[in-house]
């Protein structure tokens, strides 16, 4: 299948404290006590190695994405940026957020692009969709045995950059921020993942979504550089795609200050050299 759209996505989550009574028996209603209990449980089951909750125990509080058109260019491709935005409404509702994500995915039928999306983002989305009874038949039914969203090595269907850049674990799996540091992209700045729960408790959904959108931009920039490296994207095509990102930020940076901040951090990281 020739996909016509790229869908670069990222999620932000907070621990699912609602599951704690069923998991450990702790009935204390205090959110912080339940979060501590969830960490304690995961330290126990990992012999003290990791307190980070496993995928089912995350509430999805933000889903951000970048959509780009895929245009064939002989044996290569070109990408044309359509939009960068976040799902959800002003009031948090996880079920509606997931319904919106999967409904849009089913309509778009895109090539997915993520960073650790196979290991974290998609599994979390699947578990939470199951919790809320949200269906996603196209995710499982599209393609064939070797070309499908659920086939680990089908990067034309779901390109998890953390996987493909490490040759699926043949070399170390690195962090997005580490790749960005080498490539001259902004990487993490401002809010970071460890502060998402704090901002969520304060009702700052917008701040979380803004942060998530900058991660999506970083992921897209890394994807463009990888496609250039593999020969799927020409140097001119790469520079045009990067130019469209710059143009988006210039057009919307005043109304969306996190994009202006991204551009400033990008300039600092790259010596104000954005194209090749």
Low-confidence runs of at least 5 consecutive residues? none
Supply the number of helical segments. Answer: 11
CATH class: Alpha Beta
CATH architecture: 2-Layer Sandwich
The name CATH uses for the topology is Nucleotidyltransferase, domain 5
Overall 3D form: globular
Helix content bin: 40-55%
In CATH, the homologous superfamily goes by the name Ribonuclease H-like superfamily/Ribonuclease H
Widest beta sheet: strand line-up: 3-2-1-4-5
Strand content: 15-25%
Radius of gyration: 19 Å
In total, how many domains does the architecture comprise? 1
> What is the terminal separation in angstroms?
31 Å
Class based on secondary structure composition and strand pairing: alpha/beta
The tally of strands reads 5
User: Topology as H/E string?
Assistant: EHHEEHEHHEHHHHHH
Give the mean pLDDT. 96
What profile does the largest beta sheet have?
5 strands, mixed
How would you explain this protein's 3D organization?
The chain is globular. The chain has 276 residues and is an alpha/beta fold. It has one domain: Nucleotidyltransferase, domain 5 (2-Layer Sandwich), CATH 3.30.420. It is built from eleven helices and five strands, in the order βααββαβααβαααααα. It has helices spanning 20-24, 31-45, 94-108, 117-132, 137-141, 161-165, 176-183, 196-201, 205-230, 235-252, 257-270; strands spanning 5-15, 58-73, 76-86, 111-114, 158-160.
